[in-house]
């Protein structure tokens, strides 16, 4: 007989939420894994002793972590999703008939809590990873990736001109509040405007008809009034957008995230390494772990970074730029005299220190003008200059050592280790932990979101970890007992070989 299910929508009186969530459920195991009570002590100073009770801090952090684990970016969608899941309600400590907090309450609480509370949660989870043996600490892989900001590129405004010494926005200064007017030096704006007009004038179509001119945007000329901390950046193969830069370090033992920070997206990766290294070292020293090797791509290669890592006795597996040349063709360097010698045997001694356009220091070598003027190779060596001049960075020795390391077989293996460690972590955070786009504004809010995504990732690592059981045990004997054991074994083998012959001899007798 055909069955038909009838739904009566009756009121259930005997119902216990804990009986409906199985023991192997993700959120039930997560509730038992972490002790969340420390969050009350971390946030107690942020509340007054009077007034209406606020949202429970533990509930707030559990709620935003669910958003990372469920790959949800919007707070409104997060609350709607949690109301339909029994296991999430059990994880949050809410009954079926209780109303969840409003999405605006979640947003305001996120703004109330400083970044230090989120970092404390990250340290708490990281400490459990260390206790479970998931972190070795000696080898760390570093990388960065852009994350879309909560602002539109269509709404950017042009900066107003200011005096030569007037205030302006730069990548290393504190950004103004949303809605304020951002200024830049007038001479800088004039130079950029002239260059843009020149490039636009060169763009002509068929038969001289001009196409509609594209809008040229730059961080030097434009800013976002919605999120002044967001920066215009472009990644090869992707469109230009307002982004933040997510920089993180991953332990190569089991892929646990050991540090994460939010940086401006219009600066080089190499400029963020000192701050990243300081935070990473502080966290590792708190657990008595020592960093010995650091893996990164060529974007982190510069002289100060090499010198900083060598000063801290950390081996830098960072490839140098392709434009770096360890040897100058036709010129031999003598370390003892700190001078170069050309093919004609003339010396180019060290003359002075100077800086380039980026502010990096380098050493300058040259020979006297009369020596170069009489040289038969001047037409090919220095055809337009009065003399031959060689510029070398003051960190040339550190560059050379890094270049020699990357040429070895271990250097090639370390490159593959970095690619297989940190790049999959970025892919997971961007596509499965809600980091594809930020739902907050400001660098502080971006830092909080990145910390939550890293905490959710490390919690998944903790839940999936299964300690290996020891199958067999080997006992090491001291050298005298080991030698006696070997001699006894040899005597037994000789006696076993002589036994058949002795039996045959006695039988014949």
From TrEMBL:
Residues 16-111 form the Transposase InsH N-terminal domain. Residues 341-463 form the Transposase DDE domain. Residues 159-184, 192-211 are annotated as: Disordered. It holds the Pfam family DDE_Tnp_1_6. PANTHER family: TRANSPOSASE, TRANSPOSASE DDE DOMAIN-CONTAINING PROTEIN. This is IS1182 family transposase. It comes from Hymenobacter saemangeumensis.
